[in-house]
Write a structure and sequence with these properties.
- This protein is 20% helix and 26% strand.
- It is an alpha/beta fold and 262 residues long.
- Strand 2 and strand 3 form a beta hairpin.
- Bound molecules: oxo(2-sulfanylphenyl)acetic acid and manganese (II) ion.
- Oxo(2-sulfanylphenyl)acetic acid (23J) binds next to loops.
Length: 262
């Protein structure tokens, strides 16, 4: 790319013709968190924000907090080392992954109507191929995200997790969907629900196919994405950079998209 072309990007950002869309939910004590079944003993802790000072006796001129925060909390990134299938990648941690990969064009597959009808909606490879014939091919290195508008439930953990005695019910991909996307060479897959997989994905073969297969192939996952309804099907650039946590398996992110506005 020429320096002039990048200068044009800078100009477009300043004028608002290139808009930064926030794809992030608010992190705090009410952020919905994954509840693993009892047979896995431990869960990620509730988020805590503790004040150190706010212009008071503990710090007269300054305000600051400290956090208790699991890596896999809120709008977050799954690194390959998160799953046993990705355990051996030296560049599979938040501090070793290739940052160039996480800034890429994003394909937004709108399944919000289906998800409103059926909380267990599954995106199939056939549906992705139909989307491609309408919007264009998914290319190597790109992100693919499932728009379900599930973020509209994020202020109510029970509605967001949507669990009953049969477990959680939320949209996600099928095994053949993830296999197809990986065959296209995607960098990663994002969902608007608590994890990258569907609520009922524990019963799939393999269980949790998004986790199992994405990370097997050194690819990334994004969970609890917000505001995908503000993105075009194609043409936006997604920036999903995790904190550089030492040996980190994931991280909360400030996910954002660059969108052209005429
Ligand atoms: C730990 C164990 C199982 C799952 C997850 C975390 C996630 O969904 C996650 O946040 O990556 S399924
Ligand atoms: Mn995660």
């Amino acid at each position: 790319m020429s320096k002039e072309a990048l200068a044009n990007v800078g100009e477009a950002l300043l004028s608002g013709k290139l808009e930064v869309v926030d794809l992030t939910g608010t992190l705090g004590p009410d952020t919905p968190l994954l509840k693993l079944p009892e047979d896995f003993a431990r869960n990620t802790p509730k988020i805590e924000i503790h004040k150190i000072s706010e212009y008071d006796e503990d710090g007269p001129f300054f305000a600051w907090n400290w956090l208790k925060l699991g890596e896999h909390s809120g709008t977050h990134f799954d690194a390959p080392h998160h799953w046993i299938t990705g355990r051996d990648y030296a560049d599979g941690y938040t501090d070793t992954l290739d940052l160039q990969r996480v800034v890429a064009p994003v394909n937004v597959i709108d399944c919000s109507a289906e998800a409103a009808e059926n909380p267990d909606f599954l995106l199939t490879a056939d549906r992705v191929r139909a989307w491609e014939s309408e919007h264009g091919e998914i290319r190597k290195g790109e992100w693919v995200v499932l728009r379900s508008d599930w973020d509209k439930r994020a202020d109510d953990e029970a509605a967001f997790l949507n669990a009953d005695e049969t477990g959680p019910h939320s949209p996600g991909p099928t095994v053949d969907c993830i296999e197809y996307l990986l065959s296209k060479g995607i960098v990663g897959w994002g969902n608007q629900c608590i994890g990258t997989d569907a609520g009922q994905a524990g019963g799939m073969e393999p269980p949790y196919p998004a986790h199992n297969m994405l990370h097997r192939d050194n690819c990334f996952g994004l969970a609890s994405l917000a505001n995908l309804d503000k993105l075009p099907a194609k043409g936006a650039i997604l920036i999903a950079a995790p904190l550089k946590i030492k040996n980190g398996t994931g991280s909360p992110i400030r996910a954002m998209a660059l969108v052209a506005r005429d």
